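Below is a filled-in request sheet from our internal design queue. Each sheet records the structural input a requester submitted and the sequence that came back. We keep these sheets so that new team members can see what a complete request looks like end to end.

REQUESTER: design group, bay 2
PRIORITY: normal
MODE: inverse folding
CHAIN LENGTH: 406
BACKBONE (tokenized):
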């Protein structure tokens, strides 16, 4: 009888000590990151976001961080048949039809709707690790599981994360070939948010996934922003997803849903994922508000994504004319980019706040420290709100921001 990797006779006392050290380092880094972003605004954080609430226009994303509950529920009620019945513990026409719709779109046998991508990806890696009889799962150093989930993959599932490549660059095939641990799964994020939404070329992606298959390594896609990749690859979503054994997608980011995610893959894999979903407490009695808002996002925003991506390239061209600005990647490969501004953070925030007071235009939520000395970084995601700004207006806003800050 095959033994689980959790009882395979390894030296787990040594491994545990190493993991504990990594937990401490990761938690410290995470907490410092949150303090930097949220606790050191020039003005009080509540005042900062109160100022945003007073603005009429927003440069990034879809505008305000979220619709009010009344606005969201009114929107959903207007597009929902009056006789539609709610889901019940993951069953019912509403949720099963939506799961089939997304599975068909991505060319997968089945899908399961879950409350969060955090839950979906941990479950996926747990399943592949059990099937491959190895605790080792590989991902980029800036993977969401590594920097935003408090080591849950390790503490809840006994998995060992193998960090591959540089935190400042895309993972390469050469990076993977240096790994010596017997890998159960490889997780790839498309696009890579923490480095500006970068994507490997199609040939590079095929080479990496082919190598993984040749080495019997399961492939999991972190597709939190998969929707935004299609214009770059110029291939159907199903062709992109076909490179992976399982895929997670999000519905609350560019699609603007309330919350929710879906894990997709072979039918037997999804059957097992449903069991783990219940173990995680994620099989909620009803999730119809999440499902309806996810459907609405697919219906209304999926077709706009090429516009968002084109606008991002246009904006990068504008920003590249400022000697104080560096855009990464340039040109953007999706609808997002990281913008590095050579200026003092407090002066940038004060300049942005003055624009908000005078023009009722909100630029960005955070001006974060960056790895480039003397520069601040903003994550610029293009959405519905951004499309309302002309080239000339964006040029003028950055001209005012930068000149006031330097």
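RETURNED SEQUENCE:
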């Amino acid at each position: 009888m095959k033994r689980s990797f959790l009882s395979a006779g390894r030296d787990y006392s040594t491994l545990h000590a190493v993991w504990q050290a990594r937990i401490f380092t990761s938690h410290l880094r995470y907490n410092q990151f949150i303090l930097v972003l949220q606790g050191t605004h020039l003005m009080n954080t509540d005042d900062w976001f109160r100022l945003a609430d007073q603005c009429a226009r927003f440069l990034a994303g879809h505008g305000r961080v979220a619709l009010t509950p009344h606005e969201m529920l009114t929107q959903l009620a207007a597009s929902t048949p009056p006789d539609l019945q709610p889901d019940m513990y993951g069953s019912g026409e509403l949720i099963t039809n939506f799961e089939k719709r997304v599975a068909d779109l991505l060319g997968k046998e089945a899908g399961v709707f879950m409350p969060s991508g955090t839950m979906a990806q941990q479950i996926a890696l747990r399943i592949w690790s059990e099937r491959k009889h190895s605790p080792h799962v590989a991902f980029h150093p800036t993977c969401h599981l590594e920097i935003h989930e408090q080591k849950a993959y390790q503490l809840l599932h006994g998995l060992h994360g193998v960090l591959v490549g540089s935190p400042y660059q895309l993972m390469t095939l050469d990076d993977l070939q240096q790994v010596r641990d017997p890998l159960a799964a490889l997780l790839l994020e498309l696009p890579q948010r923490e480095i500006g939404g970068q994507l490997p070329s199609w040939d590079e992606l095929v080479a990496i996934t082919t190598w993984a298959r040749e080495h019997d390594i399961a492939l999991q896609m972190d597709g939190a922003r998969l929707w935004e990749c299609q214009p770059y690859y110029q291939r159907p979503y199903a062709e992109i997803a076909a490179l992976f054994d399982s895929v997670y997608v999000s519905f609350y980011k560019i699609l603007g849903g309330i919350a929710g995610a879906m894990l997709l893959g072979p039918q037997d894999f999804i059957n097992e994922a449903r069991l783990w979903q219940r173990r995680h407490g994620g099989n909620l009695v009803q999730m119809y508000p999440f499902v309806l808002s996810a459907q609405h996002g697919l219906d209304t925003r999926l077709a706009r994504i090429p516009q968002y991506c084109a606008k991002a390239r246009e904006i990068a061209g504008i920003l590249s004319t400022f000697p104080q600005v560096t855009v990464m990647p340039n040109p953007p490969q999706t609808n997002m980019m990281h913008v590095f501004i050579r200026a003092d953070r407090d002066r940038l925030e004060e300049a942005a706040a003055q624009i908000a007071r005078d023009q009722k235009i909100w630029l960005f939520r955070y001006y974060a420290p960056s790895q480039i000395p003397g520069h601040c970084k903003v994550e610029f995601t293009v959405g519905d709100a951004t499309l309302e700004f002309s080239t000339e207006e964006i040029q003028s806003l950055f001209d005012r921001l930068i000149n006031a800050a330097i």
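SHEET NOTES:
- The chain has 17 helices and 13 strands.
- The CA atoms of residues 22 and 151 lie 9 Å apart.
FILED BY: M.R.
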